[in-house]
Amino acid sequence: MTTPVPTIGSGITLFTAATPNGYKISIALEELKAIGAIPSYSFVSISFQKNEQKSDWFLKINPNGRIPALVDTIEGQVPVNVWESASILLYLARVYDTNHVFHFSDPAEEQELLNWIFFVQGGVGPMQGQANHFFRYAPEKIPYAIKRYQDETHRLYSVYETRLADREYLVGPGKGKYTIADICTYGWISSYAWAGLSLDSFPNLKAWLERISARPAVVLGTSVPKSNYVKPGDAERAAKEASDWILRGMGHKI
Ligand SMILES: N[C@@H](CCC(=O)N[C@@H](CS)C(=O)NCC(=O)O)C(=O)O
């Protein structure tokens, strides 16, 4: 499978799409830009409809054929390929956030940050991803599967609800500090409605979501690239479009 190979210039190039995992990285890059930790970055919008994420050239960057992925080309060094959203966030924190604005120098606090990053990567992402699949994309509606993944995602949300009872951010002393753990989590929580979930029973999580959504870097990051899912009335078209490429990828005839 081959689609045209994009030119990768110097500096940071993000390969992404308008999805919860993609936005984690564009938000982090906008935050780093805002504090002057990186001068700029480029991005390449990957088309799932054209199956670009499975192109030969892209598989050399991310063998798993999924976004996000990032290439960091530093003069005089071998370009670094980074993939898996949490791995990318940790890379950006380690290499560019040397003042620990969005993570911690204290080992115990940094470990707590890792706990919440692993929690979203190993729990919320996979469960909510399956809730999306069975609620929006599956060719047949299977009530048991929809309920199973929605219930499990809501259960995981209740862990955040308790955590955020007396704090503003997931990790850090006092009421916490906004970090890459929040950014990693935001990608999924902000798209709760797409999976047919509700935040009605989670007021602390809802307040956290609103707090983070208001950050200028989050507003900028969530338009890299722009989503073509415009308004709720458009959900059916957007779901059908996504369902077609997902099912084609699973070998269904569409
Ligand atoms: N665990 C991965 C998940 C990446 C992932 O599933 N990306 C989706 C978009 S959110 C994707 O590229 N899907 C394309 C495909 O399934 O072919 C991460 O955190 O980066």
Automatic annotation (TrEMBL):
It comes from the Eukaryota. The keyword Transferase applies. Residues 9-100 form the GST N-terminal domain. Keywords: Transferase. GO terms for molecular function: transferase activity. InterPro entries: Glutathione-S-Trfase_C-like, Glutathione-S-Trfase_C_sf, Glutathione_S-Trfase, Glutathione_S-Trfase_N, GST_C, Thioredoxin-like_sf. Pfam families: GST_C, GST_N. Coiled coil: none annotated. Residues 106-233 form the GST C-terminal domain. Belongs to the GST superfamily. This is Glutathione S-transferase, C-terminal-like protein. The lineage of its organism: Eukaryota, Fungi, Dikarya, Basidiomycota, Agaricomycotina.
